[in-house]
């Protein structure tokens, strides 16, 4: 921050002393100040994004995969896609609850909120959300592959389904 201010001051001084035309000095100075202000205000957005990710990230193991779980507090979300971010985070939290309770889970192939976030705010990190969604999809497919077996009871040896017989007593 100090380096930018020093650089800005030096550039203004160079322009003032080198340019003879007063109008050119004013225009050049205003242009330089505008660029400096933009650099000061918007130049640290990537660093802010990294700090948010570090602050609100946790590591979890979901369906055998190590996943970074990102849940940013609503008040700290500074994005055009804030509503989509909140909706996606809430849905992922619901998926996490279902996963931890070993409940069936249905995760869509493409998440509309994730796509909307990527379209509306390219600077917002969606990699964490996407990897978490992949882990839940993996869990859902593993759950589908497990077919529920008929309960085995030592007292009853009849098959799980009723046996149909016709009036003559022959199995159909």
Blueprint (SSEs and pairs):
Layout: H1 2-18, H2 22-42, H3 45-56, E1 57-62, E2 65-70, H4 82-100, H5 112-120, H6 127-145
Antiparallel strand pairs: 1-2
Nutshell version of this structure?
The protein is mainly α and 172 residues long. It contains six helices and two strands.
Commentary on this structure:
The protein is mainly α. It has two domains: 2-43; 46-145, no CATH class. It contains six helices and two strands. The protein has helices at residues 2-18, 22-42, 45-56, 82-100, 112-120, 127-145; strands at 57-62, 65-70. The protein has a two-stranded antiparallel sheet with strand order 1-2. A hairpin with a 2-residue loop joins strand 1 and strand 2. Helix 1 (2-18) runs antiparallel to helix 2 (22-42) and helix 4 runs parallel beside helix 6. It is elongated. The N and C termini lie far apart (85 Å). The model is unreliable at 26-30 (pLDDT under 50).
Q: Which runs of at least 5 residues are low in confidence (pLDDT < 50)?
A: 26-30
- Return Rg in Å: 30 Å
**Basic shape:** elongated
Structural class: mainly alpha
Oligomer: single chain
Distance between the termini: 85 Å
User: What fraction of the residues are assigned to beta strands by DSSP?
Assistant: 5-15%
Order of strands, widest sheet: 1-2
What is the β-strand count? 2
Q: Output the helix-strand order.
A: HHHEEHHH
Number of domains: 2
The helix fraction, in percent, is 55-70%
Largest sheet: 2 strands, antiparallel
The average pLDDT score comes to 77
Secondary structure tally, helices: 6
Keywords:
single chain; 172 residues; mainly alpha; 2 domains; two-stranded antiparallel sheet; 6 helices; 2 strands; 56% helix
């Amino acid at each position: 921050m100090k380096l930018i201010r020093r650089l800005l001051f030096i550039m203004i001084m160079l322009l003032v002393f080198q340019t003879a035309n007063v109008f050119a000095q004013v225009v050049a100075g205003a242009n330089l100040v505008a660029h400096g202000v933009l650099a000061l205000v918007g130049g640290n957005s990537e660093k802010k994004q990294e700090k948010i990710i570090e602050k609100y990230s946790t590591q979890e193991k979901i369906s055998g995969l190590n996943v970074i779980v990102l849940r940013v507090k609503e008040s700290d979300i500074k994005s055009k896609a804030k509503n989509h971010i909140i909706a996606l985070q809430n849905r992922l939290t619901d998926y996490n609850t279902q996963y931890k309770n070993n409940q069936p889970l249905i995760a869509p192939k493409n998440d509309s909120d994730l796509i909307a976030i990527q379209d509306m705010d390219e600077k917002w990190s969606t990699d964490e959300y996407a990897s978490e969604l992949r882990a839940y999809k993996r869990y859902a497919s593993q759950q589908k592959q497990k077919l529920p077996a008929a309960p085995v009871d030592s007292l009853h040896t009849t098959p799980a389904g009723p046996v149909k017989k016709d009036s003559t007593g022959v199995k159909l």
